Amino acid sequence: MPARGEQDDVVQDIIEEPATYGDAILSSDDEVYTKFSERPLTQFYQPSQKRASFESLPNRERHEEFIRKSVEILLKDAVFEGTSRNNRVLQWTCPEELSRLMEFGLKNGPSTHEELLEILKKVVNYSVKTGHPYFVNQLFSSLDPYGLVAQWATDALNPSVYTYEVSPVFILMEEVVLKEMRSIVGFEAGRGDGIFCPGGSIANGYAISCARYKFQPDIKRKGLHSLPRLVLFTSEDAHYSIKKLSSFLGIGTDNVYLIRTDDRGRMDVTHLIGQIERSLSEGAAPFMVSATAGTTVIGAFDPLNEIASVCEKYKLWLHVDAAWGGGALVSGKHKSLLKGIERADSVTWNPHKLLTAPQQCSTLLLRHEGILAAAHSTNAAYLFQKDKSYDTKFDTGDKHIQCGRRADVLKFWFMWKAKGTSGLEKHINKVFENAAYFADSIRNREGFEMVIDQPECTNVCFWYIPESLRSCKQDSDYKERLHKVAPKIKERMMKEGSMMVTYQAQKQHPNFFRIVFQNSGLDKADMIHFVEEIERLGKDL
Amino acid sequence: MPARGEQDDVVQDIIEEPATYGDAILSSDDEVYTKFSERPLTQFYQPSQKRASFESLPNRERHEEFIRKSVEILLKDAVFEGTSRNNRVLQWTCPEELSRLMEFGLKNGPSTHEELLEILKKVVNYSVKTGHPYFVNQLFSSLDPYGLVAQWATDALNPSVYTYEVSPVFILMEEVVLKEMRSIVGFEAGRGDGIFCPGGSIANGYAISCARYKFQPDIKRKGLHSLPRLVLFTSEDAHYSIKKLSSFLGIGTDNVYLIRTDDRGRMDVTHLIGQIERSLSEGAAPFMVSATAGTTVIGAFDPLNEIASVCEKYKLWLHVDAAWGGGALVSGKHKSLLKGIERADSVTWNPHKLLTAPQQCSTLLLRHEGILAAAHSTNAAYLFQKDKSYDTKFDTGDKHIQCGRRADVLKFWFMWKAKGTSGLEKHINKVFENAAYFADSIRNREGFEMVIDQPECTNVCFWYIPESLRSCKQDSDYKERLHKVAPKIKERMMKEGSMMVTYQAQKQHPNFFRIVFQNSGLDKADMIHFVEEIERLGKDL
């Protein structure tokens, strides 16, 4: 903590005089001029030399020019140049170097607006441009212009979504969007329930919480300590959040039984039945299957109809983690990938992934009404008063485990208003076309090898094999040598800042690349660029 | 779900031709002109009549003017006029009316930019202005101008904070801010650990998770089913999230033992000891006390030093929920309210409350290194590769239960850079002064009665007693009649939009107002305004 009472405070005190809203002007040698009449007028119009005020209330005279200048920096450096193919995805600096360049340290006295604008430029400069067309590293990318405007609006309104009185627009908007999403999932007449969550992991946690509440409502009051051992099932390729949240919820990672996947990464239903039977024979209490629609690495879709039938037979809650693949539901062409999802009890679907809503926009959708509130509500008197002047069914906050909560709905609703359902569909069709084109481009190209020959989603996994390795496939150290190729190419692309794509090992496979497409601003030429760029970076290895 | 294949699509398809970046121009009767040469040039400069494009990539020609016009609306309607004392805090509409006015429904075809700008205006118009000086309704308020700029920057960069490679700036920034906050809490040399969380409730959940992991690390794998009954303790005035998250974590609400509070709302340590002994006598396993520094309603600070000594004696984890009161730590004048907090194992502190960082900015701070990761990590191979080109200790995402995660740090760091620690201190001192002035103003004023005579924090609880009730204090129905006063005044202020302050009942007390001060742009005249406004609204009741 910086020492208090430095000389800076004197300056700050002077400029807080209500009469000097124009703030003190500092000359280059930091001398303070408090009497405006002593200075030529032009110096008063260097607002960037104003010191920041401590008050938390915007004031046109004090802040307007600073905010406008900040917006100019953001529009230029982040929004337009940051997403231009002419510029880099990132400017690589190692952690030690970045610490020096960014001057993260906090001090006692205030900064001038000019200093803050410089800081802002640096923040943008050294940040990765996740909206850049060549950022294909994660299950999110893009900088949707309509989503961005809506985020900025959300920030300018700074809401917290728990009661109608505080967030009237966002409370009603959430209900409309969630109902529309349930309709698209195929829940009858869009009925059911839903919430916006801070990420798909926590959405999956809510699903587990609802499933076990349905299994045994006493859990809410009594907890798990006196119950039989609860067991849930998910595939070995499922997202790690199923294990992580099972642990957080007190179920324990050992009680997540992992089901084998087939050669295309889909849950093996025979093995699922065997594991359910195993849990029963152990005297445990199976209560839930979490299927995946679009696995994190391979992009596989579990056979939902078959799994739904198993769940019906054994009376298990069916959750579908469609955080990644859910976006395909808006496309007439691709929604069959999720056949059977309408039989799910709950669905995780993140519009911030395939549909490129800004971070974060995650939902949990339920076929059942009332369980979310029954499982989670505590009826806090200070927030959810029942004697309000409006119908308090609109105070929906108590079904969440969050209290204060950002309005993550506006960005997605606004994008949907902008593009229409038909626009969302075009977006999905385009990114699937791009992924197919990329896969076609490398499938028979020398030096490339597919991990899964026919990817189902828009993530494509492949190896790049440098020339030096192509004739060594029979060598005993081939896999070991191939394992080192992707990290090396990744290091080179990071240092050049030319693109970002991730890699990993899985099961028996040495490190391979996983390229991911969500950005519908990309086209076929970009797909060819990626192929050639990886060749350029790796050919001499 | 809207039907697909409407005529709109034709328009959309035409304007997607790469050659017509200027987009189609629609005449007022919606006729489509696709050949630019047929129209006078001026019509091309009506960009607001452009239809929204479906691509998720910003493009200057398509989007710049739309984004700029949007910013103008936000600056005028939300940032400056929305926080002006000359304007209303809200424009009240009941849910049914608002549904009609806002046209929330989604359609198949795209909107024009002009339509989107109108929609944006409506969103702002019907939203509550939480940055307005007269919004004193919740434990958050204000629209900090530096925080706002930093939020807009976060959105323009759209990061997800889990690895250094994707979020280099924000990963390092988080470590600096969390260390500084630990120093202020008083953890030795700022050592320990910490995370940004999506709200204080989930931060409290993390604390419970860490506490039980320390008590029994096997819980992560094995869960709670075979363990003795875990019990934790918090005061009856603590935030409801302790119960809610205990339930979510599988502990159960019955196993949160509520400790009585004294007449100023502080935890009764004698009762705490009694309840710990009770749990032991029941054969349960007490593992944690959650003390509160700044209770939600009364603003009370539990006696942390006494509680810390009890925790040491019984070997219990001490968590301090300072979500609300933590901000007082930056003030030399007020930090003694939290004496003993440096003995805590974990602390929840939300800079979005007293320090007015934008929603959301919540932290959990720990005195212990390593427990967060030990309790929560699952080492996903696809994200946390160990063979990267940099030191992967900077890939901190695995200690969170979230996977994708917004960068909530920038807004607070940027505010801190702007104001300096001294500015944060001035802010805190000002809001405490305001609260004291408000309390002084009503303490001996006819028609007002304090619930707690000497509030410790900046929330002040009081009754307003209309003239008609002042002589009826001995009547048997006095409390019943007083109970109806606050809801009625609240309804009137909502409908006029003149201010927003919340009310509630508690224990034996009929409904009382709780006014909350965080906005350092307020001054003494505003305090008097609140008093007089409540009198104006309620005097005839």
From TrEMBL, chains A, B:
Superkingdom in the source lineage: Eukaryota
Record SUPFAM superfamilies: PLP-dependent transferases
GO cellular-component term (any): cytoplasm
N6-(pyridoxal phosphate)lysine modifications at: 353
GO molecular function ontology, one term from the record: carboxy-lyase activity
Cofactors required: pyridoxal 5'-phosphate
GO biological process terms on file: carboxylic acid metabolic process
Keywords (A to Z) from UniProt: Decarboxylase, Lyase, Pyridoxal phosphate
UniProt keyword DNA damage, yes or no: no
Gene3D superfamilies reported for this sequence: 3.90.1150.170, Type I PLP-dependent aspartate aminotransferase-like (Major domain)
PANTHER family: BLACK, ISOFORM A, GLUTAMATE DECARBOXYLASE-RELATED
Subunit structure, as described in the record: Homodimer.
Record family assignment: Belongs to the group II decarboxylase family.
Protein name as annotated: Aspartate 1-decarboxylase
Organism: Tenebrio molitor
